[in-house]
C-alpha cells in the first residue's frame, strides 16, 4: 500500500512539469544566484552549507503541505482511506515519493555547488548528501503534519511563518547559535533545523565523522519520524 501510494504521487508529479521544475531547478538556481551575489568562493563556502539545508527544507515543506491538503479537500484522501490503507501507509507513501524527489533535488543542488560553484567540503561527500536528504525529509514530514491542521491551501501556507521561519532565524544562518542570548539559544536547541545546519557546517569544515555529527543526523531523522507518527495520529479523512 505504501509503495502504491508513492507510485501514484510520483505519477502525478510527472504530469506536472511546473512542480517538477520548482523542486529540481529552484534550489540549484538559488545556490547559483547566491554564489554570484557573494562573488567569492570563500564567502560562498561559509554561507552555502546552511542554505543547502534551508532551501530543500522550505520547498519540501510547502509542496507537501499544500499537496496533501489538496487531496483531502478534493475528496481523494477520503476515497483512499475507504480502502484497507492505514494512516502510516498513506503518509509513508507520501514520504517515500517526496523523499525520492528530494534525493534528486539534493544531489543536483549539492553537485552544482561542489563541482561548479566552488563549495569546499572537508568531510566525505556522502555525509553531506545524507544530511541534506534528511533535512528535506524533515521538511516533508513537517508538511504532512501541518496539513492535518489546515482547512485550505492558504492556511497551509500560513503555517510557514510559524513552523519554518523561526527555525531559519534560529538555526545559526544569520548569527552563530552560541552568540545568541540564553533564551534564544535554548529555543534553537529544540528546533530540528538547527541540528541539520550544525551537521552541514561540520561536514564542510572537518574531515572526520565524529559522534557529534552522527548525533545531529540522528536527531534530524528522529524528528522527521516523530512528525510522521504525529501526522498519522492526527490525519483526518477530509477537511470539514
UniProtKB/TrEMBL annotation:
TM helices/strands, residue ranges: 20-38, 44-69, 90-119, 125-149, 156-175, 217-235
GO cellular component: ATP-binding cassette (ABC) transporter complex
Location within or outside the cell: Cell membrane
A Pfam family: ABC2_membrane
PROSITE patterns: ABC_TM2
Record domain ABC transmembrane type-2: where: 10-238
GO BP term, example: response to antibiotic
Record-linked InterPro entries: ABC-2_transporter_component, ABC2_TM, ABC2_TM_bact-type, ABC_2_transport
Membrane topology classification: Multi-pass membrane protein
GO molecular function: ABC-type transporter activity
Keywords for the protein's UniProt record, in alphabetical order: Antibiotic resistance, Cell membrane, Membrane, Transmembrane, Transmembrane helix, Transport
Membership in a protein family: Belongs to the ABC-2 integral membrane protein family.
Protein name (database record): Transport permease protein
Amino acid at each position: 500500500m505504501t509503495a502504491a501510494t508513492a507510485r501514484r504521487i510520483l505519477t502525478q508529479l510527472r504530469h506536472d512539469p511546473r512542480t517538477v521544475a520548482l523542486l529540481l531547478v529552484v534550489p540549484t538556481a538559488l545556490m547559483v544566484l547566491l554564489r554570484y551575489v557573494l562573488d567569492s568562493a570563500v564567502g560562498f563556502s561559509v554561507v552555502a552549507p546552511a542554505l543547502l539545508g534551508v532551501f530543500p527544507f522550505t520547498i519540501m515543506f510547502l509542496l507537501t503541505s499544500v499537496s496533501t491538503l489538496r487531496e483531502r479537500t478534493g475528496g481523494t484522501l477520503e476515497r483512499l482511506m475507504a480502502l484497507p490503507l492505514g494512516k502510516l501507509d498513506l503518509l509513508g507513501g507520501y514520504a517515500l515519493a517526496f523523499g525520492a524527489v528530494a534525493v534528486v533535488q539534493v544531489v543536483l543542488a549539492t553537485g552544482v555547488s561542489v563541482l561548479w560553484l566552488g563549495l569546499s567540503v572537508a568531510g566525505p561527500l556522502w555525509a553531506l548528501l545524507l544530511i541534506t536528504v534528511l533535512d528535506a525529509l524533515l521538511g516533508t514530514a513537517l508538511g504532512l503534519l501541518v496539513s492535518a491542521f489546515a482547512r485550505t491551501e492558504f492556511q497551509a501556507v500560513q503555517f510557514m511563518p510559524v513552523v519554518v521561519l523561526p527555525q531559519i532565524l534560529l538555526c545559526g544562518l544569520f548569527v552563530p547559535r552560541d552568540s545568541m542570548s540564553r533564551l534564544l539559544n535554548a529555543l534553537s536547541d529544540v528546533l530540528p533545523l538547527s541540528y541539520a545546519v550544525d551537521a552541514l557546517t561540520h561536514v564542510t569544515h572537518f574531515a572526520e565523522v565524529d559522534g557529534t555529527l552522527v548525533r545531529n543526523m540522528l536527531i534530524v531523522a528522529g524528528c522527521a519520524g516523530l512528525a510522521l507518527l504525529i501526522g498519522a495520529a492526527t490525519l483526518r479523512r477530509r477537511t470539514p
